[in-house]
Amino acid sequence: MKAMLFAAGLGTRLKPFTNNAPKALAMVGNKTLLEHNINYLQKSGINDVIINVHHFAEMIEDTVAKNNGFGSNITVSDEREEVLETGGGMKKASWFFNADEPFVVMNVDVLTNLDLSKLIEAHSKVDSLATLAVMRRDSSRQLLFDYEMTLCGWQNNATHEQKSARSLENTAPFAFSGIQVVSPAIWNDAPFNGKFSLIDLYLHVAKQHVVKGFDHTGDTFIDVGKPESIVKAELLFR
Length: 238
Known about the structure:
By secondary structure, the protein is of the alpha/beta class. The protein has 2 domains: about 1-110 and about 230-238, Alpha-Beta Complex (Spore Coat Polysaccharide Biosynthesis Protein SpsA, Chain A), CATH 3.90.550; about 115-220, Spore Coat Polysaccharide Biosynthesis Protein SpsA, Chain A, CATH 3.90.550. The chain is built from 6 helices and 14 strands. It has helices spanning about 35-40, 55-65, 85-90, 115-125, 200-205, 225-235; strands at about 1-5, 25-30, 30, 50-55, 75-80, 105, 110, 130-135, 140-145, 150-155, 160-165, 170-180, 210-215, 220-225. Strands 1, 4, 5, 6, 8, 9, 10, 11, 12 and 13 form a 10-stranded mixed beta sheet that branches. Strand 10 (about 150-155) and strand 11 (about 160-165) form a beta hairpin. It is globular and about 50 Å long.
């Protein structure tokens, strides 16, 4: 199995650090976020990883080269000309994945003890185009799932905006953890190009196909998006 790490973002919430470096190289303890997540993938036997780069791209490439990929085979997806967001970034890197094998995609700025092998197993048991790791936790934006954990919609809790793929009756909100297992067939019915969000992709395909949620509430999880969250992350992931 192969994986993708999203590392192209500008990291505006992590300023002032990201004024001079990419968020992927923010230190948590004695490791960068990039190394933490390469090691995390290795624990599930995933050693072939593609990383998209944009903001301070050369710094990420140099770090990977100097550390021999931290023990993994690292490929770079170059988005220097334009950052393509999550959906566009995944589509640009789609050549890297095997045509008949699901792959893991995750944000470089999340840390968790989620058992990735269980997420992969859950995806393999259902005819789903994607299986999204989600939790019952507060978030400004949440995904809406029915009682079978089938994706039905999305909502912005601040603006009360909703987007639906299926009926939103009897659904429950979950926060997306930025980790997912995706089947290559997701591109078969996806009229998206250029810059677009994975959430928009999932909501589109969920109208005709199955996209599942995997509830890992109770696991340790942190989005290392702000300077103060680095301190919390160091306490959680010593």
